């Protein structure tokens, strides 16, 4: 299924939804929409009046089953070039230049099977959410777990949807860990993801787990190294590193 | 957070998957599942799994096993330069 070169197109912002203090989801209607594979991203290009252009990649959060539109969930990076514009300037009805879907490496589809272990840090949860939404849209019963690291409970993106999915789907279980501050009475994990935590979460899946790790580079490095030390076959691990954004 | 240079270099790494759009500009197709063999250590890896450094004037793709530079991509206003002497070959799936 060779994909040909993609052209830039102007997507129209049809909805903007705040997810957390630092993240918003943008729904874009695309004139040349095509189904993405869950985990893929779009490049977003901004052009200044003087012609200066800059691009960033943002993962698709929505499932490919939703035709004609995509959701991009964007974290506001304080000294960023693109995300502050998207957060502070873009309004419903505006047009944004995008191209995609791109990146066939970090993808999971129901046909690929499981069990599925998703590990995310911060906004690294976004492509993982596309996989879970796709799995739900397909009514798949493939066992799935997500281990999701955030600074505080307020920084958890899609918390309500993850909890609702867990309540309605016995084959899915979310695990949260808080690295800076846990909510009062929290009995779950409250530290950075480490080997002990990984071995607890992966235990029922054993060496068969297909693992997707997305987040800041240092988190992804630590998780990938721990998984390899646990003798999980490297072909079953897919990573997507964000760079230095800290969680 | 205090980081020494090695840590900072590590923190700046992303995956080849992150430059999928730029690779598509060069090759006209999704290259993230194409395999590159490292000329240094012979390890084969999907281009999406290479280590990518994107904060310089160009993109440098490195081997995930030995970290040798496999390819460099530099864009100028009139051309795109691709230097790939660190790869024995690229294998593109049909």
Structure description:
The complex is a heterodimer of chains A (247) and B (94). Chain A folds into two domains: 9-102, Elongation Factor Tu (Ef-tu), domain 3 (Beta Barrel); 110-241, Rossmann fold. Chain A is built from five helices and eleven strands, in the order βββββαββαβαβαβαβ. Chain A has helices at residues 83-88, 125-137, 159-168, 195-202, 217-229; strands spanning 9-18, 23-29, 41-47, 53-59, 69-75, 95-102, 116-121, 144-152, 172-181, 210-215, 237-241. In chain A, strand 1 and strand 2 (23-29) form a beta hairpin. Chain A is globular, with a radius of gyration of 18 Å. Chain B has 94 residues and is α+β, with helices and mostly antiparallel strands. In chain B, the strands form two sheets. Chain B has a five-stranded antiparallel β-sheet, with no helix packed on it. In chain B, strands 3-2-8 form a three-stranded antiparallel β-sheet, with no helix packed on it. The A-B interface holds A 2-6, 41, 43, 55, 57, 99-100, 102-106, 216-218, 221, 238-244, 246 and B 1, 7-8, 10-18, 20-21, 24-25, 28-30, 32-33, 46-49, 54-55, 93-94.
Major β-sheet profile of chain A: 6 strands, antiparallel
CATH topology annotation of the largest domain in chain A: Rossmann fold
> How big is the Rg of chain B?
13 Å
The whole-angstrom Rg of chain A is 18 Å
Oligomer: heterodimer
Structural class of chain A: alpha/beta
Average pLDDT level of chain B: 90
The level of helicity of chain A is 10-25%
What topology does this entry show?
The complex is a heterodimer of chains A (247) and B (94).
Chain A: E1 9-18, E2 23-29, E3 41-47, E4 53-59, E5 69-75, H1 83-88, E6 95-102, E7 116-121, H2 125-137, E8 144-152, H3 159-168, E9 172-181, H4 195-202, E10 210-215, H5 217-229, E11 237-241
Parallel strand pairs in A: 7-8, 7-10, 8-9, 10-11
Antiparallel strand pairs in A: 1-2, 1-6, 2-5, 3-4, 3-6
Chain B: H1 5-12, E1 14-15, H2 20-27, E2 35-38, E3 44-46, E4 51-53, E5 59-62, E6 69-75, E7 80-83, E8 87-91
Antiparallel strand pairs in B: 1-4, 2-3, 2-8, 4-5, 5-6, 6-7
């Amino acid at each position: 299924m060779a994909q040909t070169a993609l052209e830039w197109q102007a997507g129209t912002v049809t909805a903007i939804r705040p997810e957390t203090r630092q993240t918003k989801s943008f729904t874009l209607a695309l004139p040349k929409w095509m189904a993405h594979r869950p985990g893929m991203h779009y490049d977003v290009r901004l052009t200044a009046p003087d012609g200066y252009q800059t691009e960033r990649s943002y993962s698709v959060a929505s499932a490919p089953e939703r035709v004609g539109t995509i959701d991009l969930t964007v974290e506001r990076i304080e000294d960023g070039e693109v995300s502050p514009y998207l957060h502070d300037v873009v309004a419903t009805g505006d047009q944004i230049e995008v191209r995609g879907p791109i990146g066939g490496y970090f993808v999971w589809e129901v046909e690929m099977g499981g069990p599925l272990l998703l590990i995310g840090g911060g906004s690294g949860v976004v492509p993982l959410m596309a996989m879970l939404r796709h799995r739900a849209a397909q009514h798949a019963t493939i066992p799935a777990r997500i281990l999701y690291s955030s600074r505080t409970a307020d920084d958890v993106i899609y918390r309500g949807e993850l909890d609702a999915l867990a309540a309605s789907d016995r084959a899915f279980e979310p695990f949260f860990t808080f690295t800076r501050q846990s909510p009062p009475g929290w009995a779950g994990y409250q530290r950075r993801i480490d080997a002990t935590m990984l071995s607890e979460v992966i235990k029922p899946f054993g060496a068969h787990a297909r693992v997707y790790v997305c987040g800041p580079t240092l988190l992804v490095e630590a998780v990938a190294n721990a998984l390899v030390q646990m003798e999980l076959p490297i072909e079953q691990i897919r990573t997507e590193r964000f760079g230095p954004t800290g969680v | 957070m205090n980081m020494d240079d090695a840590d900072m270099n590590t923190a700046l790494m992303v995956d080849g998957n992150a430059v999928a759009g730029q690779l598509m500009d060069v090759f006209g197709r999704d290259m993230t599942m194409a395999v590159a063999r490292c000329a240094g250590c012979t390890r084969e890896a999907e281009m999406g799994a290479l280590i990518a450094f994107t904060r310089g004037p160009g993109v440098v793709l490195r081997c995930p096993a030995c970290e040798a530079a496999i390819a460099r991509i530099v864009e100028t206003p009139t051309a795109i330069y691709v230097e790939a002497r660190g790869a024995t070959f690229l294998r593109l799936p049909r």
